[in-house]
Amino acid sequence: MRHLAIDVGPFRFVARMEEAAAPKTCAAFLELLPFSNQVIHSRWSGEAVWVPLGEFDTGLGFENHTSHPSRGDILLYPGGLSETEILFAYGSSCFASKMGQLAGNHFLSVVEGAEQLHEMGRTVLWKGAQWIRFTDLGER
């Protein structure tokens, strides 16, 4: 199984790609690596941080999509009702925007570093935007 390293400010996570459930999303995201941007705290989705991607066209539809990510799940919303974005749940979350409830493609699951999720979320909430970087760790 392929894994990615995810650095958020001073925090490091390892996530498993959900290639069986979201093969197109995983393949499209791998093409973007290494990927860096800023992550900010969600406005409507509860305990989650997000990377706004504006009008970025992923060319994707929905696969393995959910509105209720679990702690440590990472979703890619391919755009449509709201802007394209990445949502990283660190606790209880219901994915939404000012347009209402959304569903995103669950393509990554944190498998290492989960004990840091809450502190990462609090850091983004109280200290503001943090740099996020995704890098390929290959097969593990």
TrEMBL record:
Protein's recorded name: Cyclophilin-like superfamily protein
Organism of this sequence: Thauera aminoaromatica S2
